[in-house]
Request: fold
Amino acid sequence: MDYKLLVDERGKKYLLKKSVEKFCTDLGVVETKEIGKRLESHLGHKFYLVEPTLYDVLKRMKRTVTALLPKDIGFIIARGGIREGETIVEAGTGAGVLTMYLANAVGRGGKVISYDIKPEAIKVARKNLLRVGLIKKNQKILGLDEDFEDDIEVEDGLFNVILKFGDVREKIDEKNVDVIVLDMPDPWNVIENAKEVLNKKRGRIITYLPYIDQVKKTVSKLKEEGFWDIETYELMERMIEVSDKGVRPSTRMIGHTGYITFARAPLEE
Ligand SMILES: C[S@@+](CC[C@H](N)C(=O)[O-])C[C@H]1O[C@@H](n2cnc3c(N)ncnc32)[C@H](O)[C@@H]1O
Reply:
């Protein structure tokens, strides 16, 4: 990743580019050369400097759309059985948040081909993915007639994401796909294409939708096309506050975000 994470003694976090050697905060100036150290500002305040996790990065990165939250991403990966080496087709890319976790889950031996119909969205996602080492320096967005000249290069990246400007309702170019993940408004219009390209032995489809009416339409279409093992879930997230007074759930929680539907690809007779 092209980042390092500076945390002050109050727990406030700053995501810095790797090249930053000195950083100014309200608690003083800190030398930020050595990652993996406890540091002190010129005013005597304590800081930590570490490598950020993907979670640290995505909380602070630029978004043009509503991105998926960790509670849903985690379940998509776990219940979806996404593993090392798999080929995933995703739509839409959006901010690229889900893309990042999918790419890390499939690892160096796998790949994520991510489609979006909005050039602005996919270009923002491209920048985000470049910084965390999932696409290569100057890598093109397939289907867009545009060259990119990047000034950063991540050395230890996975580089396993391919970005495509395209509409998955019209065409999915890939064959023998292990998993199709759809975070877009009308996945029922993609199901026939998905059926064509999913691997018959292990192919799965996963959809993420905010409205129950969309889920109903999607599940009907999945059944009509012969998909099976169909299940829909909703997850709630509640933080626990631990203080000297006691331990209790936070009064605020993340309630509804979206419904996640899982299904297996149809089998031939
Ligand atoms: C809610 S965003 C996805 C957010 C993404 N999962 C994330 O975590 O950052 C939905 C995206 O789907 C794209 N989209 C909608 N319909 C599409 C289609 N038919 N094919 C490809 N992308 C599509 C939109 O342009 C939008 O960027």
